[in-house]
């Protein structure tokens, strides 16, 4: 019905001896029987397996310790307790034909291959019985965990000398399936809580026994002694050692008076002064109890590093790959991750938005920001003055206007004057400064019933689309932050400590605006015949300067004698040609300059988390002017963007408030398993600033008011 054979690997010629290969053949047969029984889906009353190797059968039937390679395969064979093993001579073994090889014609004529030996069709009592056994005939029952009797109990819960009932040979249990004990260590994250639950469970089990002794009267059920904790710890260690008995059997060990398996070392001479260090308790690196013990030691060392925790752990315990295990456990420590986990890395810079690289009308896309406050004299007294900066995202032109407050009425007046002078913008971009939040609230709440109509409704009628940047991400507003720095430089270097009258201050602000609009935005050359560099004012007033040379080959015509309509047409044509020339120069010089200056990587700290935040992640939220141990925690509820281009997220804080923060101010607290990098989504031109629209802006923290001309 089913057969299978395998070739001997050449690389393992020395390690795979004949008895080991015969044992592997038994393992293949056991697996084949399990496969056939599963696929037949019919009840099977008995399973018999024959082998022509008495050595391999003796290994299966014996409980003597074997090398690790042999022991692990014997353990899998012994798991099939329903299989009866028999010895068959080689000349009566059909499997021997497959090992020697035969062509189809020879195989067709071999009756042994198709029908088996002659005695196979007889009753089982007539089969050869040179060597027959079944694992269930042996003592395959699990020794389980010993429950202390009343004779073993002292005044406390139970005596520390109570040990598990074990086989005479430590390695006998490798052939047995050890069930889990009554305490599931994985269900408890606290070491102290695990010990208390263990004490209560063992008290309950003790009371179920007929020979139990009652707890002394007047002693509370939750009253624990040091001996109780020590006995509970020994019980848990014995339970875990039984579970991982097969893996621990390959290490030299012995049983102490408490039934704990201890590692044999060459420090026997140091046993008296340091018995625990000379023969530490043997644990498995895969055990959950090992992790709980490491967590307890790590907390007792005041969350010290790997070396501190490992040194203290090895004083009393030992496990394979101890350093790796300690590092893994400490990597999940929440308190340590709060203080040492790196922030999320910002994604690569996206392509420049369309408002930066596509020809558009001046101030069609506008960025707005406040700077200040500074001081000016008004009616003989000092007053605070702010400066509203509006800049064109395409031509980099600037509009500056002072204002005396941050109210919605004041900002609406500035906006109306700006629209009257420069035209109505279609898109506006700003940060989440306190003055913008105040203006937005005032426009929505305080001006709905004014006679002139709300500014919000006026803006809606005008078709202005307003977008806010994520909170606490000033780099996203670099379009206007750079101009804020240039404006501050002009004020500080020119005025110094002087305080102007408000009218003089407004005049000086207009002069600074004119200077900024005359700054070059393309390459500047000192050559005599080099073209004049491009300036923002050239797009606002193209007739202000016409620097292109007149072609000498053209016939000169005295335009003063032309009719008025022709003179107007020539002037109009000249203005349009001049503007087109400026846009041509903008496309050929300014865009190339942007290409050379553009980058893809953000500057950040050396250690960053390259993973992308996901909905549901618990993170630590960075706050300025506060120590890291005081930063609040939040849960990611929404991603602003698509992986891997996540630049900001929405968080739900402990108090229920929903905020927006950039990813580089978030520190992940949860340990993730390695996952493949997400597939990048195709980039496409976005709106100014390349930031998602946030429904409700959030106020940023106010900075020091004593500093002059600080961006709000």
TrEMBL record:
Annotated Integrase catalytic domain ranges read 358-539
Against InterPro entries, the record matches this protein to:
DUF5641, Integrase_cat-core, Integrase_H2C2, Retrotrans_Pao, RNaseH-like_sf, RNaseH_sf
List compositional bias (Basic and acidic residues) regions by residue number: 693-712
Query: Per the record, which residues fall in region Disordered?
Result: 131-150, 669-712
Identify the Pfam families for this entry. DUF5641, Integrase_H2C2, Peptidase_A17
- Please give the biological process terms from Gene Ontology that the record holds: DNA integration
Coiled-coil spans are: none
Q: Could you cite one Gene Ontology molecular function of this protein?
A: nucleic acid binding
Q: What is this protein called?
A: Integrase catalytic domain-containing protein
Taxonomic source organism: Globodera rostochiensis (Golden nematode worm)
């Amino acid at each position: 019905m089913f057969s299978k054979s395998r070739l001997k690997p050449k690389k393992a010629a020395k390690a795979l001896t004949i008895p080991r290969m015969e044992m592997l053949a038994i393992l293949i047969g056991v697996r084949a029987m399990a496969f056939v029984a599963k696929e037949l889906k019919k009840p099977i009353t008995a399973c018999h397996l024959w082998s022509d190797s008495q050595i391999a059968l003796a290994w299966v039937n014996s409980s003597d310790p074997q090398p690790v390679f042999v022991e692990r395969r014997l353990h899998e064979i012994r798991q099939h307790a329903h299989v009866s093993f028999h010895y068959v001579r080689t000349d009566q073994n059909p499997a021997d034909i497959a090992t020697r090889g035969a062509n189809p014609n020879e195989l067709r004529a071999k009756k042994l291959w198709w029908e088996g030996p002659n005695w196979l069709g007889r009753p089982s009592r007539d089969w050869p019985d040179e060597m027959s056994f079944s694992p269930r005939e042996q003592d395959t029952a699990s020794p389980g965990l010993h429950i202390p009797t009343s004779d073993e109990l002292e005044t406390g819960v139970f005596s520390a000398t109570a040990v598990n009932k074990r086989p005479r040979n430590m390695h006998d249990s490798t052939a047995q399936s050890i069930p889990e004990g009554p305490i599931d260590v994985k269900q408890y994250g606290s070491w102290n809580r695990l010990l208390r639950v263990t004490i209560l469970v063992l008290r309950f089990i003790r009371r179920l026994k007929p020979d139990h002794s009652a707890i002394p009267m007047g002693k509370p059920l939750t009253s624990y002694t040091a001996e109780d904790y020590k006995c509970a710890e020994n019980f848990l260690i014995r339970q875990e050692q039984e579970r991982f008995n097969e893996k621990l059997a390959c290490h030299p060990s012995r049983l102490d008076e408490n039934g704990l398996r201890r590692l044999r070392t060459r420090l026997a001479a140091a046993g008296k002064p340091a018995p625990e260090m000379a023969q530490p308790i043997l644990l498995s690196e895969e055990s959950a109890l090992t992790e709980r013990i490491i967590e307890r030691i790590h907390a007792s060392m005041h969350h010290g590093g790997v070396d501190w925790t490992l040194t203290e752990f090895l004083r009393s315990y030992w496990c394979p790959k101890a350093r790796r295990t300690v590092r893994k456990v400490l990597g999940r420590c929440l308190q340590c991750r709060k203080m040492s986990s790196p922030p999320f890395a910002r994604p690569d810079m996206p392509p420049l938005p369309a408002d930066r690289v596509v020809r558009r009308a001046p101030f069609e896309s506008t960025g707005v920001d406040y700077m200040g406050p500074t001081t000016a004299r008004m009616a003989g007294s000092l007053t605070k003055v702010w400066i509203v900066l509006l800049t064109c995202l395409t031509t980099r032109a600037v509009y500056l206007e002072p204002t005396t407050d941050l109210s919605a009425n004041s900002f609406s007046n500035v906006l109306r004057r700006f629209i009257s002078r420069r035209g109505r913008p279609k898109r506006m971009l700003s940060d989440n400064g306190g003055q913008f939040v105040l203006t937005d609230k005032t426009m929505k709440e305080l001006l709905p019933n004014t006679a002139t109509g709300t500014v919000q409704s006026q803006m809606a009628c005008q078709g202005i689309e307003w977008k806010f940047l994520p909170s606490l991400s000033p780099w996203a507003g670099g379009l206007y932050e750079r101009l804020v720095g240039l404006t501050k430089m002009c004020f500080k270097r020119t005025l110094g400590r002087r305080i102007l009258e408000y009218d003089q201050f407004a005049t000086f602000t207009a002069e600074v605006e004119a200077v900024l609009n005359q700054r070059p935005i393309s390459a500047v050359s000192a050559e005599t015949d080099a073209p004049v560099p491009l300036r923002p004012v050239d797009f606002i007033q193209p007739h202000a300067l016409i620097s292109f040379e007149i072609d000498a080959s053209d016939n000169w015509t005295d335009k003063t004698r032309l009719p008025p309509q022709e003179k107007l047409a020539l002037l109009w044509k000249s203005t349009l040609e001049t503007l087109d020339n400026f846009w041509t120069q903008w496309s050929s010089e300014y865009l190339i300059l942007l290409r050379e200056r553009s980058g893809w990587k953000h500057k950040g700290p050396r250690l960053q988390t390259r993973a992308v935040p996901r909905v549901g992640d618990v993170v630590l939220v960075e706050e300025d002017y506060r120590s890291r141990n005081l930063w609040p925690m939040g849960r990611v509820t929404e991603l602003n963007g698509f992986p891997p281009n996540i630049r900001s997220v929405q968080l739900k804080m402990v108090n229920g408030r929903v905020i927006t923060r950039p990813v580089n101010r978030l520190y992940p607290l949860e340990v993730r398993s390695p996952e493949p990098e997400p597939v990048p989504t195709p980039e496409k031109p976005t709106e100014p600033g390349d930031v998602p629209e946030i429904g409700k802006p959030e106020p940023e923290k106010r900075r020091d008011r004593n500093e002059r001309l600080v961006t709000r």
